Amino acid sequence: ELGVNLFDTADVYGIGRSEQILGKAMAGDWERVYVASKVGNVVRDGKPAKDWSRQHIITSCEDSLRRLSKDVIDLYQLHNPDEATIRQGDWVDTMEDLRKQGKIRWYGVSVFQPEEALAVLERGKGYAIQLVYNALRQEMAEEVFPLALKKNFAIIARVPLYYGILAGKF
Fold first, then answer.
1. Contact assessment for residue 120 and residue 86, using Cβ atoms and an 8 Å cutoff
2. Which tops the pLDDT comparison, 74 or 44?
3. How far is the C-alpha of 39 from the C-alpha of 80, rounded, in Å?
4. Are 70 and 104 in contact (CB under 8 A)?
5. E-assigned strand segments in the chain
6. Annotation says 13 is catalytic
């Protein structure tokens, strides 16, 4: 009602609980909003790990759709891959296949470092980059923003309140 039209989540947030809660809250009302979800962070043997395999991306997408009670994920993103994965991984083919199947509308990458964002843009595959940008962290503005504009990539700012520091939480 206040104009929020993008919800960002990930399969790993609350081990899927975040998507379940969002799915229940938005049931039957998805036409008013977009949802972005992420894939790649996993827990194996009690330890955090990464999985960019085709099978994991497909299975996680299907699981996310089920938890969200949604037919399509508007923006599906790799969740903090390293630069080598961004440049050389076969994730692009998997994401394109998910698009063709109608399971996702767009895909992108969520990153921390400018080098990772530049790798996404240099590869030229995808539609969006979710990156760290706020009053304390503005290093993306100089190189990444102009190149993203030139290559027609959407930018989503993450940690805009720098983990609560800029909100006066600490």
1. yes
2. 74
3. 9
4. no
5. 6-8, 34-39, 41-44, 47-50, 73-79, 104-110, 128-132, 154-158
6. yes
Q: Is 114 helix (H, G, I), strand (E, B) or coil?
A: helix
Place of tokens 């240099």: 122
Q: How far is CA 29 from CA 4, 16, 33, 74, 164, in A?
A: 13, 20, 8, 14, 30
d(CA 77, CA 82): 13
CA distances (Å), origin 96, targets 43, 46, 57, 58, 104: 26, 31, 12, 11, 9
Instruction: Report whether 40 contacts 80 (CB < 8 A).
Output: yes
What's CA 100's distance to the chain center, in Å?
19
Phi, psi of 120 (to 5 degrees): -60, -50
Q: What is the pLDDT of residues 129-148, one digit of tens each?
A: 999 999 999 999 999 999 99
Taking 90 as the threshold, does the pLDDT of residue 77 lie above it? yes
Angstrom distance (rounded) from CA 51 to CA 112:
18
Bridge partners, residue 108, by sequence: 77, 128
pTM: 0.93
DSSP label of 81: -
Amino acid at 44: R
